[in-house]
Specification:
The protein is built from 13 helices and 14 strands. The protein is of the alpha/beta class. It is globular. Bound molecules: zinc ion.
Amino acid sequence: MNQRLPVSGAQGDLLRLVATGRAESRADLARLSGLAASSVSLRVEELISLGLLGEEGSGTSRGGRRPRRLRLSPSAGVLAVADLGAHHARLGLLDLSGAPLVIEERPCEIARGPEATLDLLSDAFDELLAVHVPDDVPLRGVGTGIPGPVDPATSRVVTPSRMPGWNGFPVAEHLGLRYDLPILVENDANLMAAGEARHWPGCDNLMVLKAGTGIGCGVIVNGHLHRGRGAAGDISHVRVRSDSSVLCACGHPDCLEAYASGAALMSALADSGITVARPADIVSLVDDAIPEATSLVRGAGRRIGEVLTVLVNFFNPDVIAVGGSLSAAEPLITSIRAAVYERCLPLATRDLEIAPARAGRDAALLGAGALLLEAALV
Ligand SMILES: [Zn+2]
C-alpha cells in the first residue's frame, strides 16, 4: 500500500518546520515561512484534519494568550532506518520528528551480497514494525546507509571496497519491490554528517570524518549535505606520502585507507602478532597502553590530518567532527589536530574546531531520518 505523505509544497514546508523543531506555533510558522497568518492557519487546520499535526492545549483553555504548541501527531507515521556495517547492521524506527522509537543492532555480513543483506534488513524492519507500531500508524519511508560510494542519481552502489557483489546493485529498486515508499540509499559517512550537523547549531560548514573499518567523510555546506556526483568527501583514496609502498584495495599504491583505516591498522597489528577482530578492539588496546596499538593510531591520525590539511585550507570549515569506532582512541583526534594546526594557514584554523562527534553512535540513523523526511515532504 502506498503511504506517501499526502502533503506537498507549502504544506510540506510547514510540516517540515514543525518536524525539525524550528517552529512550535502558528506564529513561528508565519515568521519562518513568510506566509500570511491566515494562510498558515488554513494549512495548519488541513494538516490537523489529515491527522499529521496535533496542537497541544487546544480546546482546554480559551482564555489564555499563550500560543498553542504544534507537534507532529504520534500516529502520523514512522520511518524505518538502517546503517550497514561490514559485520553488523544498526537499525530502528523513528517517528516523523526523528525521535527514535526503537534502535537495535543485528549481526549482518555485508559480504554475503546485496540480496541476502537487504532481505535480512527488510525482515528486521517488518519485525520491529509488528512489535512497536500500532497497525493504524503507517510506515512513511525506508532508508539505509551503505559503507561505500552511492551514485545519488541512480541509488546504485559504485565500486565499493570489501563488498563483493554490490557493485552496480540497484539498492533502492530492490527495497522498492517490498516498500512502495520514499526510499533513501546513502553513503554511511554522508548519513552520519547529516545527523551530526543537527548537533552543531550555528555551524553551517562541517566535515564529518568516519574512522572505522574504512575511512569516510561527509561534507555539510551551508547547512546542507554536499553529495557532488556521489563521491564528495571520499578521502579514502587520496595518496599519502610514504617511505614504503602499500597497495590499496582500489589497485593504487599508498591510499590513505591503506595506512590509516581500521582494516589497515588491524592488519598491521596482526603483523606484530596481535590479533583483533574489529576496530573497537584497537581502542581497547590503546586504553590498555599497548604501545604497538598507540603508535599505529597516532600514525593514522597524523596521516589523516595531513590529508585534511589540504581540505581545511581549501574548504575552510567551522568544524571537523570525528566519529566512527576508531574515534574513541584518544591519540587519533590529538594527532589529527596536531597535523592540521601545524600545517594549515592561521586564517583557516583561527576558529576551527576539531572535536569528537556529538551525535553518538546513532548519528547515521538520525541523519537518515532527517533526509527521509525531506524526501517524503517534496
Ligand atoms: Zn585506494
